[in-house]
Amino acid sequence: MLLQLTFPLVLAFFGLTPQYRKIIFDQVHDLVFHGGGGFKYYEVYNMPIWLRRFHIQKISEYNKKQNEEMKKAKQGSTPNKNSVHGPNIKPSSTYNFKK
Questions:
Q1: Cβ-contact 52, 31 below 8 angstroms
Q2: With CB atoms 3.0 to 4.6 Å apart as the test, which of 15, 35, 64, 81 could cross-link to 39 if both were Cys?
């Protein structure tokens, strides 16, 4: 006699969905790659979710602030049309070429 068992939660048993796994690995990558060398893979992977999100948010805020400062600096230093963009060197006087 063959006994057939049925489990109502066969597909929902312990484990991560592919979508959630991608989110976790994206977060781990972002912290390790953009964390400036302050994080190691196993530390981030085992880090509590709230702490991982906190660090990602802080890095994001820092990058946004840096981008805004770069834009302001770029707008403030618009080059003048009459300014010299390179050295005024005449090759014949700089180098001893014989003509």
A1: yes
A2: 35
